[in-house]
Amino acid sequence: MNPLLARLQPYPFERLRQLFAGVTPPPGLRPISLGIGEPKHPTPPFIQAALAGDLREGLAGYPPTAGTPELRAAFTGWLQRRYGLRLEAATQVLPVNGSREALFSFAQTIVDPTRPGATVVCPNPFYQIYEGAALLAGAEPYYAPSDPQRNFAVDWDSVPEAVWARTQLLYVCSPGNPTGAVMPLDEWRKLFALSDRHGFVIASDECYSEIYFGDTPPLGGLEAAAQLGRSDLSNIVAFTSLSKRSNVPGMRSGFVAGDAALIQQYLLYRTYHGSAMSPVVQTASIAAWSDEAHVEANRALYREKFAAVTPLLAEVMDVRLPDASFYLWAGVPLRPGEPAEGSDARFARELLAQYNVTVLPGSYLAREAAGSNPGQGRVRMALVAETAECVEAAQRIVQFIHSRPQTA
């Protein structure tokens, strides 16, 4: 067996399953899960129709790993409409089977494990795929600390120069999971300068980019590069997906875009990896990327939901409306004498046992660094269900907090 497999930590939802072992929720309360970030809004009918078309079309041959010209044109058309970018469909975009598999496999293309001290930098808290990708590529993950006083923005200045010097790949996530924070242009300017100085590649995870609450869409990594005069998009590749944007997580459809030289090598890897997108999914993806009306309707549903839920929870928890994404990153209120360590896991277990609501402990989405876990004392809530269900969950959480004993 590959010995690097032994370095992988249990996935957050496996840890959640272990935490909940032996818990019996009260009868009469339907279960409500805010734990998993799986979109629950209905899939738009026109996408369903595209999937249910002539399923025989294209099934007699192997699909091209690079996707059809029509699919790649749909990608570049959306990038131009959304970000004002003009990318070459033949060389700067590739279809992927959801951003998750691409974020993982990209590290296998970029990392050279024979170089001493090969390092992959990622935020902390973070999406655990970044860590797993680094480890199985033969690199060491470095967890860049975040600043709770700035909505858990990553403190890139605290990363030692010696770490940057051996970094080969940097994962960023904007809008962020779990915090929902969006990286501003100055932050991108700092990262591009570091990349130029040390030669590492930036992988920009942007799968939540179309769920936002203000009037201005979140800034994308490629968009930031263009605004800063980096017309060749050197050393940056952006990852996006239809799952959240179009409510089709089961389609496993997304794309990567950016530096043509990196895309060329990634295509070589994917050709051997055998990760071509189904012709049926390609057809439905073209339809989804070509329409914005359903995205606007989806965004309106999330805005309505967050407007109803956030004020309820803000009365009893440290929580506020995020910049974007469909998560609330909420601080757990401590009872007098209760230790902070483990408070998020205790909160989640007791909430399930007493009110049948599932939330994810924040410490499961982070790693201990400099003596503390930045997710400790917080929980992530995915507001993916219908508004009424999320409001009911929030009301139960409020009741739960008011009913908790005043001693730990």
Description:
The protein is of the alpha/beta class and 408 residues long. It folds into 2 domains: 3-42 and 294-403, Aspartate Aminotransferase, domain 1 (Alpha-Beta Complex), CATH 3.90.1150; 45-291, Aspartate Aminotransferase, domain 2 (3-Layer(aba) Sandwich). It contains 14 helices and 14 strands. The chain has helices at 12-19, 45-51, 69-83, 99-110, 128-136, 161-166, 185-198, 221-227, 242-246, 260-273, 279-289, 293-314, 343-355, 387-403, and strands at 32-33, 93-96, 119-123, 140-144, 146-147, 153-154, 167-173, 201-205, 236-241, 254-258, 327-331, 357-358, 360-361, 378-382. The chain has a 7-stranded mixed β-sheet with strand order 2-10-9-8-7-3-4, sandwiched between helices. β3 (119-123), α5 and β4 form a beta-alpha-beta unit. 46% of the residues are buried. The mean pLDDT is 95.
Quick description:
With 408 residues, the chain is α/β, with parallel strands linked by helices. The chain contains 14 helices and 14 strands. Helix 4 runs parallel beside helix 5 and helix 4 crosses helix 10.
What key phrases describe this protein's structure?
2 domains, 39% helix, 408 residues, 3-stranded antiparallel sheet, 7-stranded mixed sheet, Aspartate Aminotransferase, domain 2, 14 helices, alpha/beta, globular, Aspartate Aminotransferase, domain 1
